[in-house]
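Researcher: We're teaching a course module on how sequence relates to structure. For the next exercise, students receive a sequence and then see the predicted structure as tokens, so they can try to spot secondary structure elements on their own. Here is the exercise chain.
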Amino acid sequence: MTFFEIKDLQKNFGGLVALRDLNMTVKETEIVGLIGPNGAGKTTLFNVITGVYRPRHGEILFKDRNIVGLRPDRICHLGIARTFQIVMPFHTLSVLDNTKVAALCRTKSQQKATQSAKEILRFLGLEEKVHIPAAHLTLAQKKRLEMARALATEPQLLLLDETLAGLNATETEGMIETVRKIRVERGVSILAVEHVMRAVMKISDRVVVLDQGQKIADGPPQEVVRDPEVIKAYLGDEYAHA
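Model: And here is the predicted structure for the students to work with:
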């Protein structure tokens, strides 16, 4: 069974080709880093995968089912969840209630949703913040809440969109460990858009590089960062000689 595969995917915005004949895969329990310059098509890809945008052509296979054309809520129910670059929790709701809203995707029972939300918040180190309004959290804590809401939908594939943006060095290391723990302890596959290359190198089993909507590299992190095309398009000569 194919866990997750993109075939010949193209997305246009008028005359602009945002994704061009893209092919890629994610295996079960694999962490794939998705990198590239701004405007490369990374977030557009997430929007296409999750049903926000419909592609011009191509297939997105999740457990052998083509999910192109399905509504975002249906795709979530099938087992794909995402986080967003700009975290936007329900600011006046508590951390627990923010997570509980997402947990209700899987159950109609308020009690079960509460139990699930509490377990996930413990898992992510937010157990002492459950009754605090989300507006009072730090950025790092809001990032964890964003993860909690995604995990509360019980995904098999988690799309992380710049989870490390804006975090300091200590917070970044903590989040790297959390991403690893999500894979190991919850068995979730992860596709992560990230610009912090140190983190990409640490957590990724494989790295896919996009440039102007096209895949220009796909392979082990240490090989990808030495690829001349990747260095030219994204990393720069300084990285090559570091």
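Model: If you want an answer key for the exercise: The CA atoms of residues 173 and 199 lie 8 Å apart. The mean pLDDT is 95.
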